[in-house]
């Protein structure tokens, strides 16, 4: 090899060579005719962590990159190739060169042996490489082509053709190049199991079914390697089992010649040819003996191939990075076309919009995009390449529970997983996801989870839509909301229509449940097998954290002062990594604080006193807030900590301006000129997120707490304790202000003061534009006031605001969502206090002479409003003050108070109303019509059914409901077996007729409730009864596909 030299620019390198293993890199380097040093003016991007070797083979300048030591797999190969193209944008072709496992079938004429070369070559629909762990056999032995990857560039295929033609006349030059390697690198051939032929006696092929029985093969005339062209199978699994190997080959149905582990990650991101030397047969006899020789032989063949690529042809070839851009546009166009077709189909589906509005589903893509924006390129690949994840992805594991310490990056990792799954572009495979979100109550319940997943399936699988449509019809065409049980059952029916499905759920600990986090964790451990538990280890996360720190030091504007000081950057990185301990969140906060260090003395002082925990970190952030901003920060943190949703940036700006003790309460001229400056108030404790309006294409900015751990700290009782001793007074201020009672009192004052400024009634949209905080204040002030209404000044403010003759009150009613009646009357203050659970306020209003039976509001009167929301103390108060428990109301929900409480499952209120004379057989109209027994039976409230029956409810009374005509039909339809049994025991007629299904048997049969069908038949149900939507029970079961019932 000639002496080392440096080229003037990295742009002179046109061939990219990737070697996954150190031995492959050594072999590739040994084939260089000339080795180069780092090119002049080479500025390696900060995200590119590849190690490069430069040189020349023949007329071509070649750059070689290898994967990190000990790392292999399709995802790492993708990262390596992508980084290479960003650093060397003039590369025109790629070569993936190294070792692989041969697929020998001597009985079929495919005599592949150890030391032979396998080269990817397109065949039929295959581009030369398929990803076997994405392959799935279909009925009739047909197979999906979803795993076929892109073809190599044309210039490489022409070179292959020339070389193949040359080998028809002359022997390969592989042995010649191996001899040159040995001469120039004698150490490579002297070591044990060196880069030399290992002997025919060490090449043995065994039967898959009998690992000890060798297959006898005819000896070859020469030890020269033979070259095989065809399809190479690539995947993330290291195959060491002949049974598994043959099963994969049977699944993919391809005449493959080789298995390997990197190509699938490259073919769609790096235009290349794959060259593999056979070092084993992917069976139990796999060893490392042939690996070095195999690596050398593959490299030698590659050197021979490059000689058949004219430089002028290579210069005419499109740059690889431009090919990728073209493919990306094509892929986006393809995805857009498919998406447009889906959207067009959904828009033509007249039910889609109705279903979406009915279920009111949160949009999980907002959380996904937010998390992906925080993702640092290359991080998370350790998990995507892990055995547990790939076994889950391939279906070998049904569940995977990934858990780790707070702040370790689980949500970003979840988003990375979702992106990875979606990038497979496998149309039959549906990926569903949901992010529980502590900042927004819309994303905190199991009910919302199932609603979101159901609509995702609806939008992706046309055949699933009839199941949701059926539930929609049963709920009075969207007039009622489905029970969780019925919705979940429908969702399970919907996913039966999907061939393959993956569901990713993030942040179970942010689900709003009465159960403690420890209880959820304990239940998961009991429910999932130990193999499904994957604890996030600190080492791989720390590796990702290091990359994140490195990226921020290189790219953050505030760290530009240290751009040329590499030793300082290394010092920052080293000190942070000593204490990061697997916490991304901790590292992010420290970097935010270090940005403020203007010189080396300040920086090193900060590095010496780094906080140890997140709590201590947050205390320092609070302590470091400028005293001029402190009251602003307190207000913002009070709202964000105790609100059920984030604030828009305009709302947050107005929160700061409001002065409940000022005159006026609100002066718009005092608003911040630049709303984004609000980020300077609370520093790292909050984040600004771009959201999209679900009803339009408009975007807006929301302010939210930066992490769940921030909320947990601010709600704790140790805020002040974590402050530095010399700042204990400031810590006490934050401790007092952020205590729940103090915070909710301040929020209530701000909201009421803001609403007092809304004197003119106008269009909702115009009002919201002029007064951004109006909608929040109208919707949530009573929610906050419930905790603090007994405080004197709060109580006075509420009573003053409840002067319902004022224009302010009228504006609030419109914003709150309550309607005026045709006669122009508005809901009374007593009604609204009862609806919101303001017990103290309701008592004061009654003392002042409020009419306890006044009509108004969507629920009709105060008693029904309180009963519908479960406010038992207010119900008792109203009854004591003379509320008519049987008063018919003109509200649109429920017929009376007992109907509302029975439907919603409030047992204690039902008991209270019954004890005070409520009619247990009263029927009602409205959106939740029927009698109270049917309401409780339909919703599955067994204890309430028992109370009603014990107090004289008629199990056979017709209800007049729109969907069911009687409690037995309702319970049978909804699958409540215990209630069905209870009603039958109380004399319910198993052949009672009426309603949507006509009979209980038809209702149960249509829904697939086998045990209830059996129970009804045992109690005399007529199997041949006619009527209803289906005609008979048998027709109902047959039509819906319930074979066991048929």
From TrEMBL:
Question: Which PROSITE patterns does the record match to this protein?
Answer: ANK_REP_REGION, ANK_REPEAT
Q: Pfam families attached here?
A: Ank_2, NPHP3_N
Top-level taxon in the UniProt lineage: Eukaryota
The answer, when asked if Repeat is one of the entry's keywords, is yes
The residue intervals holding the ANK repeats read: 825-857, 858-890, 893-925, 928-960, 963-995, 996-1028
- Please give the biological process terms from Gene Ontology that the record holds: nucleoside metabolic process
Matches recorded under SUPFAM superfamilies: Ankyrin repeat, P-loop containing nucleoside triphosphate hydrolases, Purine and uridine phosphorylases
> What UniProt keywords are attached to this protein's entry?
ANK repeat, Repeat
Which protein is depicted? Nephrocystin 3-like N-terminal domain-containing protein
Origin species: Aspergillus felis
């Amino acid at each position: 090899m000639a002496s080392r030299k440096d080229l003037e620019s990295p742009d002179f390198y046109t061939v990219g060579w990737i070697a996954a293993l150190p031995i492959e890199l050594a072999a590739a380097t040994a084939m260089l005719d000339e080795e180069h040093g780092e090119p002049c003016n080479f500025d390696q991007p900060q995200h590119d962590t590849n190690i490069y070797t430069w040189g020349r083979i023949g007329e071509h300048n070649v750059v070689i990159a290898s994967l990190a030591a000990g790392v292999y797999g399709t995802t790492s190969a993708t990262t390596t190739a992508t980084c290479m193209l960003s650093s060397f944008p003039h590369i025109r072709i790629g070569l993936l060169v190294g070792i692989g496992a041969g697929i020998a079938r001597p009985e079929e004429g495919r005599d592949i042996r150890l030391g032979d070369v396998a080269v990817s070559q397109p065949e039929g629909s295959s581009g030369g490489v398929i990803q076997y762990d994405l392959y799935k056999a279909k009925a009739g032995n047909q197979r999906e082509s979803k795993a076929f990857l892109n073809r190599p560039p044309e210039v490489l295929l022409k070179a292959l053709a020339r070389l193949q033609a040359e080998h028809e006349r002359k022997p390969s030059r592989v042995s010649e190049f191996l001899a040159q390697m040995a001469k120039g690198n004698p150490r490579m051939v002297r070591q044990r199991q060196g880069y030399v032929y290992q002997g025919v006696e060490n090449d043995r092929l065994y039967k898959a079914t009998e690992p000890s029985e060798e297959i006898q093969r005819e000896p070859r005339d020469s030890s020269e390697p033979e070259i095989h062209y065809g399809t190479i199978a690539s995947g993330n699994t290291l195959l060491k089992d002949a049974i598994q190997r043959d099963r994969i080959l049977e699944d993919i149905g391809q005449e493959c010649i080789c298995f390997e582990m990197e190509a699938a990650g490259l073919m769609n991101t790096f235009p290349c040819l794959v060259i593999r030397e056979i070092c084993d047969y992917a069976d139990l006899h796999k060893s490392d003996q042939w690996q070095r020789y195999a690596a050398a032989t593959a490299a030698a063949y590659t050197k021979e191939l490059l000689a058949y690529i004219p430089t002028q042809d290579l210069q005419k070839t499109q740059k690889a990075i431009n090919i990728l851009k073209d493919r990306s546009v094509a892929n986006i166009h393809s995805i857009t076309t498919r998406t447009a077709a889906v959207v067009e189909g959904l828009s033509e589906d007249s039910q889609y919009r109705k279903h979406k509005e009915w279920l009111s589903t949160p949009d999980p893509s907002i959380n996904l995009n937010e998390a992906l924006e925080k993702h640092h390129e290359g991080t998370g690949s350790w998990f995507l390449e892990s055995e547990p994840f790939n076994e889950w992805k391939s279906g070998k594991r049904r569940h995977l529970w990934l858990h780790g310490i707070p702040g370790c990056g689980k949500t970003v990792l979840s988003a990375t997983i979702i992106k990875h799954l979606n990038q497979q572009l496998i149309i039959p495979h549906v990926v569903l996801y949901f992010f529980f979100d502590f900042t927004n109550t819309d994303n905190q319940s199991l009910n919302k989870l199932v609603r979101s997943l159901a609509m995702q399936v609806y939008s992706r699988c046309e055949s699933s839509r009839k199941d949701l449509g059926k539930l929609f019809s049963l709920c009075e065409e969207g007039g009622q909301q489905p029970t969780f049980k019925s919705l979940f059952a429908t969702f399970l029916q919907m996913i039966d229509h999907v061939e393959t499905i993956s569901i990713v759920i993030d942040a179970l600990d942010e689900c709003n449940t009465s159960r403690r986090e420890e209880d959820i964790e304990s239940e998961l451990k009991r429910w999932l097998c130990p193999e499904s538990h994957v604890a996030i280890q600190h080492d791989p996360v720390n590796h990702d954290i290091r990359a994140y720190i490195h990226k921020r030091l290189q790219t953050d504007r505030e760290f530009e002062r240290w751009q040329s000081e590499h030793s300082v950057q290394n010092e920052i990185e080293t000190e942070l990594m000593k204490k990061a301990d697997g916490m991304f969140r901790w590292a992010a906060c420290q970097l935010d604080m270090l940005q403020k260090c203007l010189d080396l003395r300040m920086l090193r002082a900060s590095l010496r006193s780094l906080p140890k925990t997140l709590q201590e970190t947050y205390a320092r952030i609070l302590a470091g807030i400028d005293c001029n901003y402190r009251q602003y920060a307190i207000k913002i943190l009070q709202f964000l900590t105790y609100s059920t949703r984030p604030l828009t940036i305009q709302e947050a700006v107005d929160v700061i301006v409001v002065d409940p003790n000022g005159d006026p309460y609100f002066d718009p001229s005092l608003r911040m000129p630049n709303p984004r400056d609000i980020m300077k108030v609370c520093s790292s404790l909050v984040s600004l997120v771009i959201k999209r309006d679900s009803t339009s294409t408009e975007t807006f900015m929301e302010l939210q707490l930066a992490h769940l751990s921030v909320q947990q700290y601010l709600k704790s009782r140790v805020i002040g304790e974590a402050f530095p001793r010399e700042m204990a007074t400031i810590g006490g201020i934050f401790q007092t202000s952020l205590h729940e009672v103090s915070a909710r009192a301040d929020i209530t004052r701000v909201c009421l003061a803001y609403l007092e400024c809304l004197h003119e009634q106008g269009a909702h949209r115009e009002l919201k534009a002029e007064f951004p905080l109006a909608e929040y204040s109208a919707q949530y002030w009573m929610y906050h006031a419930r905790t603090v209404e007994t405080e004197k000044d709060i109580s006075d403010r509420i009573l003053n605001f409840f002067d319902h003759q004022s224009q302010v009150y009228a504006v609030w009613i419109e914003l709150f969502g309550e309607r005026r009646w045709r006669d122009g009357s508005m809901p009374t203050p007593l009604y609204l206090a009862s609806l919101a659970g303001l017990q103290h306020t309701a008592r004061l209003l009654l003392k002042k002479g409020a009419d306890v039976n006044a009509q108004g509001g969507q629920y009709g009167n105060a008693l029904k409003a309180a009963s519908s929301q479960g406010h038992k103390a207010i119900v008792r108060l109203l009854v004591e003050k003379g509320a008519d428990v049987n008063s018919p109301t003109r509200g649109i929900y429920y017929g009376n108070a007992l109907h509302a409480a029975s439907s919603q499952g409030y047992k204690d209120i039902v008991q209270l109303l019954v004890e005070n004379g409520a009619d247990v057989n009263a029927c009602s109209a409205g959106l939740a019509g029927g009698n109270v027994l049917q309401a409780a039976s339909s919703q599955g409230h067994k204890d309430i059914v028992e109370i009603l029956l014990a107090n004289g409810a008629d199990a056979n009374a017709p209800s007049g409901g729109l969907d069911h005509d009687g409690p037995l039909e309702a319970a049978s339809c909804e699958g409540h077996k215990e209630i069905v049994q209870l009603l039958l025991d109380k004399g319910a007629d198993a052949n009672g007729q009426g309603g949507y299904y006509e009979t209980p048997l038809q209702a149960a049969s249509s829904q697939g409730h086998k045990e209830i069908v059996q129970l009804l038949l045992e109690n005399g149900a007529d199997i041949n009864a006619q009527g209803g939507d289906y005609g008979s029970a048998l027709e109902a079961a047959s039509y819906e596909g319930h074979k066991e019932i048929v």
